[in-house]
Amino acid sequence: MNTIDVTLSLVVGGLFTVGFYLMLQRSLMRIVLGFLVLGHGTNLLLLVGGGTPGLPPVLDGAPPDPERIADPLPQAMALTSIVITFGLTAFLMALAYRSWHLTGSDEVPDDPEDRRIGATREHADEDKDTYPDPEPDPGSGAVPADDGTRRGGDR
User: Fold this and answer.
1) What is the DSSP track for 12-66?
2) 23-27: long-range contacts at Cβ-Cβ below 8 A with a sequence spacing of 24 or more?
3) How many other CB atoms sit within 10 Å of the CB of residue 55?
4) Which of 50, 89, 95, 97 could form a disulfide with 74 if both were Cys (CB 3.0 to 4.6 A apart)?
């Protein structure tokens, strides 16, 4: 591994770090920018993973030397990644614009319904820990009644 590979590996790690940090923010524009930086880090990772550049993958009738021919797969994957990143960025920008237009803010608000569901679940978990279900008698084959504290099913 040469110095260029180590340097590019550190750059890829830095891009991933910055991208994930920005995606964890509450501002929609920071989330979009984090996605863009993460996409660039992915492209660079694919190209670094392809190894050192060599001759073009298509040769004009010359006998191929496997050690000097470039691998076209990482380049094709990077091009595909660029197209996907562009499409998702356009979609995220449209969502951010629509959110800005409707709310007048760039911040992602807390969802009151999520808070209510979380509080209900915590309350149910506390009740379940406080009042454990009685164990059925192993010989009777009886099943304890559902008191509504268990998750799942229709209620």
Assistant:
1) HHHHHHHHHHHHTSSBHHHHHHHHHHHHHHHHHHHHHHT-S--B-SS-SSPPP-T
2) 26/107, 26/108, 27/106, 27/107, 27/108
3) 13
4) 50
Q: Is the pTM of this model over 0.70?
A: no
d(CA 33, CA 116) in angstroms, rounded, equals 31
d(CA 47, CA 41): 10
Six-digit token string for 36 = 């863009």
Q: Using CA atoms, how far apart are residues 15 and 31, in angstroms rounded to an integer? A: 14
- Mean pLDDT value across residues 18-35: 93
CA separation for the pair 115, 99 (Å, rounded): 21
89 neighbors 35 (Cβ within 8 angstroms): yes
pLDDT at 155 (0 to 100)? 47
Instruction: Name 125's Cβ contacts closer than 8 Å, sequence gap at least 6.
Output: none
pLDDT of 149 > 60? The answer is no
Q: CA-to-CA distance for 4 and 19, rounded, in angstroms?
A: 22
